Amino acid sequence: MQQIDDFRTEVAELAAILAPLPESAWATPTQFKAYTIADLVRHLHQGDHMALTSAERPAEFDALLAERRRKRAAGLTLHAEARQSFGHLNGADLLAAWRATAEQLPARLSALGPDARLKWAGPDMGVRMFVTARQMEVWAHGHDIYDVLGLHRVPTDRLENIAVIGVRTFGWTFANRGEPVPPAVPRVYLTAPSGGVWQWHEGSTAGSVTGSALEFCQVVTQVRNIADTELVVTGDIAARWMSIAQCFAGSPESPPPPGSRFRVAHA
Question: Domain 2-149 - what CATH class?
Protein backbone atom coordinates (compact mmCIF):
# COMPACT_ATOMS: atom_id res chain seq x y z
CA MET A 1 0.00 0.00 0.00
CA GLN A 2 1.21 3.47 -0.87
CA GLN A 3 0.10 4.65 2.58
CA ILE A 4 2.62 2.35 4.24
CA ASP A 5 5.45 3.80 2.14
CA ASP A 6 4.19 7.31 2.94
CA PHE A 7 4.32 6.54 6.66
CA ARG A 8 7.92 5.33 6.32
CA THR A 9 8.85 8.51 4.46
CA GLU A 10 7.13 10.71 7.04
CA VAL A 11 9.10 9.07 9.83
CA ALA A 12 12.40 9.37 7.93
CA GLU A 13 11.79 13.05 7.15
CA LEU A 14 11.14 13.95 10.80
CA ALA A 15 14.05 11.81 12.00
CA ALA A 16 16.37 13.71 9.64
CA ILE A 17 15.71 17.03 11.40
CA LEU A 18 15.91 15.46 14.86
CA ALA A 19 19.21 13.65 14.33
CA PRO A 20 21.49 16.76 14.42
CA LEU A 21 19.85 18.28 17.53
CA PRO A 22 22.09 18.61 20.59
CA GLU A 23 20.83 16.90 23.73
CA SER A 24 19.81 20.23 25.25
CA ALA A 25 17.46 21.04 22.36
CA TRP A 26 15.22 18.08 23.17
CA ALA A 27 14.02 19.97 26.26
CA THR A 28 12.74 22.89 24.14
CA PRO A 29 9.01 23.52 24.83
CA THR A 30 6.80 23.55 21.75
CA GLN A 31 3.52 25.38 21.12
CA PHE A 32 1.59 22.12 21.61
CA LYS A 33 0.56 22.29 25.27
CA ALA A 34 4.17 23.20 26.13
CA TYR A 35 5.27 19.62 25.38
CA THR A 36 8.99 19.50 24.84
CA ILE A 37 10.45 18.03 21.66
CA ALA A 38 11.33 14.94 23.70
CA ASP A 39 7.75 14.71 25.01
CA LEU A 40 6.40 14.71 21.46
CA VAL A 41 8.77 12.00 20.26
CA ARG A 42 7.98 9.90 23.35
CA HIS A 43 4.28 10.36 22.52
CA LEU A 44 4.90 9.18 18.94
CA HIS A 45 6.96 6.25 20.22
CA GLN A 46 4.21 5.27 22.62
CA GLY A 47 1.61 5.50 19.84
CA ASP A 48 3.65 3.33 17.51
CA HIS A 49 4.23 0.84 20.32
CA MET A 50 0.45 0.68 20.89
CA ALA A 51 -0.11 0.30 17.14
CA LEU A 52 2.38 -2.56 16.90
CA THR A 53 0.69 -4.27 19.85
CA SER A 54 -2.72 -3.92 18.17
CA ALA A 55 -1.34 -5.47 14.99
CA GLU A 56 0.47 -8.35 16.70
CA ARG A 57 -1.34 -9.05 19.99
CA PRO A 58 -4.93 -7.71 20.03
CA ALA A 59 -5.76 -9.12 23.48
CA GLU A 60 -2.71 -7.42 24.97
CA PHE A 61 -3.76 -4.21 23.23
CA ASP A 62 -7.12 -4.34 25.03
CA ALA A 63 -5.30 -4.51 28.37
CA LEU A 64 -2.95 -1.66 27.42
CA LEU A 65 -5.86 0.52 26.32
CA ALA A 66 -7.80 -0.18 29.51
CA GLU A 67 -4.74 0.78 31.56
CA ARG A 68 -4.28 4.01 29.59
CA ARG A 69 -7.92 4.92 30.13
CA ARG A 70 -7.58 4.21 33.84
CA LYS A 71 -4.62 6.58 33.99
CA ARG A 72 -6.55 9.24 32.03
CA ALA A 73 -9.45 8.96 34.49
CA ALA A 74 -6.99 9.33 37.37
CA GLY A 75 -5.77 12.61 35.88
CA LEU A 76 -2.49 11.53 34.29
CA THR A 77 -1.86 13.60 31.17
CA LEU A 78 -0.68 12.14 27.88
CA HIS A 79 2.81 13.56 28.15
CA ALA A 80 3.09 12.55 31.82
CA GLU A 81 2.15 9.00 30.87
CA ALA A 82 4.68 8.98 28.04
CA ARG A 83 7.35 10.25 30.44
CA GLN A 84 6.33 7.55 32.91
CA SER A 85 6.78 4.85 30.27
CA PHE A 86 9.70 6.21 28.26
CA GLY A 87 11.22 8.99 30.37
CA HIS A 88 14.48 7.06 30.57
CA LEU A 89 14.98 7.80 26.87
CA ASN A 90 16.17 11.14 25.55
CA GLY A 91 18.03 12.60 22.61
CA ALA A 92 19.76 10.09 20.37
CA ASP A 93 18.57 7.12 22.42
CA LEU A 94 14.94 8.24 22.17
CA LEU A 95 15.28 8.83 18.44
CA ALA A 96 16.76 5.36 17.92
CA ALA A 97 14.02 3.69 19.99
CA TRP A 98 11.22 5.52 18.14
CA ARG A 99 12.70 4.73 14.73
CA ALA A 100 13.09 1.05 15.61
CA THR A 101 9.41 0.72 16.53
CA ALA A 102 8.25 2.88 13.63
CA GLU A 103 10.22 0.69 11.22
CA GLN A 104 8.71 -2.54 12.59
CA LEU A 105 5.15 -1.29 12.16
CA PRO A 106 5.03 -1.02 8.32
CA ALA A 107 6.38 -4.55 7.87
CA ARG A 108 3.78 -5.96 10.26
CA LEU A 109 0.92 -4.05 8.64
CA SER A 110 2.03 -5.12 5.16
CA ALA A 111 1.76 -8.75 6.24
CA LEU A 112 -1.85 -8.27 7.37
CA GLY A 113 -3.25 -7.11 4.05
CA PRO A 114 -5.47 -4.12 3.29
CA ASP A 115 -8.76 -5.71 4.43
CA ALA A 116 -7.65 -6.55 7.98
CA ARG A 117 -9.15 -4.47 10.79
CA LEU A 118 -7.30 -3.31 13.88
CA LYS A 119 -8.40 -2.09 17.28
CA TRP A 120 -7.63 1.47 18.34
CA ALA A 121 -8.63 4.10 20.90
CA GLY A 122 -11.49 5.19 18.64
CA PRO A 123 -13.41 2.97 16.22
CA ASP A 124 -11.64 -0.06 14.72
CA MET A 125 -9.90 0.77 11.45
CA GLY A 126 -8.83 -1.03 8.31
CA VAL A 127 -5.10 -1.25 7.71
CA ARG A 128 -5.06 1.57 5.15
CA MET A 129 -6.69 4.09 7.51
CA PHE A 130 -4.77 2.72 10.50
CA VAL A 131 -1.38 3.47 8.96
CA THR A 132 -2.71 6.80 7.66
CA ALA A 133 -3.62 7.69 11.25
CA ARG A 134 -0.03 6.96 12.29
CA GLN A 135 1.30 9.09 9.42
CA MET A 136 -1.07 11.87 10.49
CA GLU A 137 0.30 11.79 14.06
CA VAL A 138 3.91 11.95 12.83
CA TRP A 139 3.08 14.77 10.43
CA ALA A 140 1.08 16.81 12.96
CA HIS A 141 3.53 16.54 15.85
CA GLY A 142 6.38 16.93 13.41
CA HIS A 143 4.77 20.26 12.50
CA ASP A 144 5.08 21.32 16.15
CA ILE A 145 8.79 20.54 16.01
CA TYR A 146 9.35 22.30 12.68
CA ASP A 147 7.52 25.34 14.09
CA VAL A 148 9.57 25.67 17.27
CA LEU A 149 12.85 25.13 15.40
CA GLY A 150 11.83 27.79 12.87
CA LEU A 151 12.21 25.40 9.96
CA HIS A 152 10.30 25.73 6.70
CA ARG A 153 8.51 22.52 5.84
CA VAL A 154 7.96 21.81 2.17
CA PRO A 155 4.52 20.18 1.74
CA THR A 156 4.21 17.09 -0.45
CA ASP A 157 1.32 15.12 -1.92
CA ARG A 158 1.61 12.69 0.99
CA LEU A 159 -0.86 15.14 2.51
CA GLU A 160 -3.61 13.48 0.47
CA ASN A 161 -3.72 10.65 3.02
CA ILE A 162 -4.24 13.15 5.83
CA ALA A 163 -6.86 15.07 3.86
CA VAL A 164 -8.73 11.79 3.34
CA ILE A 165 -8.77 11.00 7.05
CA GLY A 166 -9.78 14.62 7.71
CA VAL A 167 -12.83 14.26 5.46
CA ARG A 168 -13.72 10.78 6.70
CA THR A 169 -13.75 11.90 10.35
CA PHE A 170 -16.42 14.55 9.69
CA GLY A 171 -19.06 12.50 11.55
CA TRP A 172 -16.59 11.48 14.29
CA THR A 173 -15.85 15.14 15.03
CA PHE A 174 -19.49 15.79 15.93
CA ALA A 175 -20.30 12.44 17.56
CA ASN A 176 -17.19 12.61 19.73
CA ARG A 177 -18.55 15.85 21.21
CA GLY A 178 -22.02 14.46 21.72
CA GLU A 179 -23.42 16.66 18.95
CA PRO A 180 -25.86 15.43 16.30
CA VAL A 181 -24.03 14.44 13.12
CA PRO A 182 -25.23 16.64 10.23
CA PRO A 183 -27.03 14.69 7.49
CA ALA A 184 -24.56 15.68 4.76
CA VAL A 185 -20.82 16.34 4.50
CA PRO A 186 -19.77 19.67 2.96
CA ARG A 187 -17.99 19.71 -0.37
CA VAL A 188 -14.21 19.78 0.06
CA TYR A 189 -12.14 21.19 -2.81
CA LEU A 190 -8.39 21.38 -2.16
CA THR A 191 -5.33 22.41 -4.13
CA ALA A 192 -2.57 19.83 -3.72
CA PRO A 193 1.08 20.84 -3.19
CA SER A 194 1.81 19.57 -6.71
CA GLY A 195 -0.92 21.84 -8.13
CA GLY A 196 -3.57 19.18 -8.69
CA VAL A 197 -7.05 19.21 -7.24
CA TRP A 198 -8.48 16.87 -4.61
CA GLN A 199 -12.21 16.95 -4.03
CA TRP A 200 -14.83 15.12 -2.05
CA HIS A 201 -18.64 15.24 -1.91
CA GLU A 202 -19.01 17.24 -5.08
CA GLY A 203 -22.55 18.55 -5.38
CA SER A 204 -23.14 18.61 -1.62
CA THR A 205 -25.65 21.20 -0.43
CA ALA A 206 -24.13 21.30 3.07
CA GLY A 207 -21.68 24.10 2.24
CA SER A 208 -18.05 23.83 1.27
CA VAL A 209 -14.42 24.10 2.32
CA THR A 210 -12.07 25.35 -0.41
CA GLY A 211 -8.38 26.18 -0.48
CA SER A 212 -4.94 24.80 0.25
CA ALA A 213 -4.63 21.09 1.09
CA LEU A 214 -1.85 22.02 3.50
CA GLU A 215 -4.09 24.40 5.42
CA PHE A 216 -6.98 21.93 5.48
CA CYS A 217 -4.65 19.31 6.97
CA GLN A 218 -3.37 21.84 9.50
CA VAL A 219 -6.94 22.56 10.63
CA VAL A 220 -8.21 18.97 10.90
CA THR A 221 -5.08 17.96 12.88
CA GLN A 222 -5.44 21.11 15.05
CA VAL A 223 -2.00 22.38 14.10
CA ARG A 224 -3.59 25.72 13.17
CA ASN A 225 -6.81 27.55 13.94
CA ILE A 226 -9.08 28.05 10.92
CA ALA A 227 -8.73 31.83 11.48
CA ASP A 228 -5.01 31.57 10.73
CA THR A 229 -5.59 30.10 7.28
CA GLU A 230 -6.98 31.33 3.97
CA LEU A 231 -9.47 28.48 3.62
CA VAL A 232 -12.83 29.65 2.29
CA VAL A 233 -15.71 28.13 4.26
CA THR A 234 -19.36 28.50 3.25
CA GLY A 235 -22.46 27.31 5.11
CA ASP A 236 -23.22 26.77 8.80
CA ILE A 237 -22.38 23.05 8.77
CA ALA A 238 -18.98 23.59 7.18
CA ALA A 239 -18.24 26.51 9.52
CA ARG A 240 -19.09 24.45 12.61
CA TRP A 241 -17.00 21.51 11.33
CA MET A 242 -13.93 23.64 10.73
CA SER A 243 -14.30 25.27 14.16
CA ILE A 244 -14.05 21.89 15.95
CA ALA A 245 -12.43 19.57 13.37
CA GLN A 246 -10.57 16.66 14.96
CA CYS A 247 -9.28 13.81 12.83
CA PHE A 248 -7.52 11.98 15.67
CA ALA A 249 -8.93 9.57 18.26
CA GLY A 250 -9.44 10.37 21.92
CA SER A 251 -11.49 12.80 23.96
CA PRO A 252 -12.72 16.00 22.28
CA GLU A 253 -9.95 18.57 21.92
CA SER A 254 -10.37 22.24 21.13
CA PRO A 255 -8.37 23.78 18.29
CA PRO A 256 -5.55 26.14 19.31
CA PRO A 257 -6.58 29.78 19.84
CA PRO A 258 -6.09 32.04 16.80
CA GLY A 259 -2.51 33.22 16.45
CA SER A 260 -1.12 30.75 18.98
CA ARG A 261 0.55 28.32 16.56
CA PHE A 262 3.10 29.54 14.05
CA ARG A 263 6.62 29.01 12.75
CA VAL A 264 9.00 30.70 15.19
CA ALA A 265 11.38 33.20 13.63
CA HIS A 266 15.00 32.60 14.63
CA ALA A 267 17.77 35.13 14.21
Answer: mainly alpha
